[in-house]
């Protein structure tokens, strides 16, 4: 991935209300071990990422995007995690105090919101 | 990257059907997020909807409402460059307020006892301050 790579994040239907996306869309859950899963936008188109995700029986109402550079500006490292599957990227919240999660996820959501939906089925 | 479709940002008065949203939330079941999330309790949802109906003024922009994987509910507003959230624990009835100014990066954090009318007034006052005196 490069600084310009767009990281594609699937938005769960329950994380959208009246067309607005919650900042929880970029919050790592406890089971994610402080990693937020995304697709490498250099390897997947937004539509292909949605197809890949939902073909595993998971729900996505659309695809959001943030760049590696935007993550880095928030002290969040994004790196390939091909052990999950080829083209999987993890946005790493390790070492970030829990108290800082809300601010960082709100900023990521703001970047993604400004950019608009990358794909809507 | 060219946006394919804009995403709604700013909160506006009267645009949301809060009762309909609570009905949607009542339909959630355990495991709603990739199999690993707790559904909010029916009793808790009834309580929160009632408190919003009793204490939240019609003239303020209504909250966007989302489930939290741990079984709670998060109310959110986007007002004048601020991203505001109130994460509500339906069991303890406490709410964790967080506000971020996207320009200045200024943050506000506060805890409210949402079982009490005075703390709902404090939440409403905070929102009025952000939304502007005309609200």
Summarize, please.
The complex is a heterodimer of chains A (121) and B (135). By secondary structure, chain A is an alpha+beta fold.
Question: Mind explaining what this structure looks like?
Answer:
The complex is a heterodimer of chains A (121) and B (135). Helix content of chain A is 27%, strand content 26%. By secondary structure, chain A is of the alpha+beta class. The longest helix of chain A has 18 residues, at 98-115. The model of chain A has no long low-confidence stretch (mean pLDDT 95). Chain B has helices at residues 18-26, 42-55, 117-131, and strands at 64-67, 73-79, 82-88, 94-101, 107-113. Chain B is globular, with a radius of gyration of 15 Å. Chain B has a 5-stranded antiparallel β-sheet. By secondary structure, chain B is α+β, with helices and mostly antiparallel strands. In chain B, strand 4 and strand 5 form a beta hairpin. Chains A and B meet through strand 3 and helix 3 of A and strand 1 and strand 2 of B.
- Per DSSP E runs of 2 or more residues, the count of β-strands of chain A stands at 7
Helix content of chain A: 25-40%
Fraction of residues in helix of chain B = 25-40%
Number of helices of chain B: 3
Largest sheet of chain A: 5 strands, antiparallel
Provide key terms for this protein:
heterodimer, A: 121 residues, alpha+beta, five-stranded antiparallel sheet, two-stranded antiparallel ribbon, 3 helices, 7 strands, B: 135 residues, 5 strands, 24% strand, globular
How is the topology of this model organized?
The complex is a heterodimer of chains A (121) and B (135).
Chain A: E1 6-11, E2 16-17, E3 20-21, E4 35-40, H1 46-54, E5 62-67, H2 68-73, E6 77-80, E7 88-92, H3 98-115
Antiparallel strand pairs in A: 1-4, 1-5, 2-3, 4-7, 6-7
Chain B: H1 18-26, H2 42-55, E1 64-67, E2 73-79, E3 82-88, E4 94-101, E5 107-113, H3 117-131
Antiparallel strand pairs in B: 1-2, 2-3, 3-4, 4-5
Helix pairs in contact in B: 1-2
């Amino acid at each position: 991935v490069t600084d310009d790579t767009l990281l594609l994040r699937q938005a769960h239907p329950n994380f959208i209300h009246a067309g607005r996306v919650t900042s929880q869309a970029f919050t790592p859950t406890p089971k994610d071990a402080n990693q937020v899963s995304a697709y490498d936008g250099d390897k997947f188109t937004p539509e292909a990422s949605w197809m890949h995700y939902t073909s595993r029986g998971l729900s996505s109402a659309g695809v959001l995007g943030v760049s590696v550079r935007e993550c880095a500006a928030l002290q969040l490292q994004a790196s390939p995690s091909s052990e999950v599957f080829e083209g999987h990227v993890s946005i790493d919240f390790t070492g970030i105090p829990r108290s800082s999660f809300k601010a960082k996820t709100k900023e990521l959501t703001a970047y993604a919101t400004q950019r608009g939906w990358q794909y809507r089925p | 990257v060219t946006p394919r479709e804009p995403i709604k940002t700013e909160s506006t008065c009267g645009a949301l059907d809060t009762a309909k949203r609570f009905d949607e939330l009542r339909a959630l079941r355990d495991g709603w997020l990739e199999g690993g999330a707790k559904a909010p309790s029916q009793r808790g949802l009834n309580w929160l909807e009632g408190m919003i109906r009793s204490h939240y003024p019609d003239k303020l922009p209504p909250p966007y409402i989302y489930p939290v994987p741990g079984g709670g509910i998060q109310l959110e507003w986007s007002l004048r460059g601020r991203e505001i959230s109130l994460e509500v624990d339906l069991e303890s009835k406490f709410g964790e307020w967080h506000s971020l100014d996207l320009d200045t990066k200024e943050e506000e954090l506060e805890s409210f006892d949402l079982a009490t009318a005075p703390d709902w007034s404090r939440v409403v006052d905070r929102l009025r301050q952000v939304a502007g005196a005309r609200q």
